C-alpha cells in the first residue's frame, strides 16, 4: 500500500487496516518459523507497512489534539479521558502539545 493510499483512508479504515495487516504479519512470521518462506523479504515489507499505517494514525491523532487545543474546545483533563481520541495520550504529551500550540 502506497503512502498516498494510506493518506486517503479514514481513521476507522486505518484502524481496520492496521489490525488486518498485523494479523497477516503474525501468520506469515509463524509460517516462516515453521517452514522458511520462499521470499523472506515479505516479512520486512509487511512490518514496514504496519509501521506506516500506525504512523499515519498517530499523526492524525496528534493533529486532532492540536486542533482541539487551538480552538480551546476542551481542557487537558477532558482530553485524558479514555476514548477521547483514536490513540491514547499521556498527560505529559498533552501538556507538551498545549505548550507548543501556545508558542506558535
Q: Could you tell me the mean pLDDT? A: 86
Rg from Cα: 18 Å
Series of secondary-structure elements, N-terminal to C-terminal: HHHHH
The major β-sheet equals: none
Overview features:
75% helix; 5 helices; mainly alpha; 104 residues
Gist?
This protein has one domain (3-103). The protein is built from 5 helices and no strands. It has helices spanning 3-8, 11-34, 41-71, 76-79, 91-103.
Task: Describe this entry's structure for a reader.
Helices cover 75% and strands 0% of the residues. The protein is mostly helical and 104 residues long. The chain is elongated. It has one domain (3-103). The two termini are 34 Å apart. The protein is built from 5 helices and no strands. The model has no long low-confidence stretch (mean pLDDT 86). Helix 2 (11-34) packs antiparallel against helix 3.
Give a topology summary.
Blueprint: H1 3-8, H2 11-34, H3 41-71, H4 76-79, H5 91-103
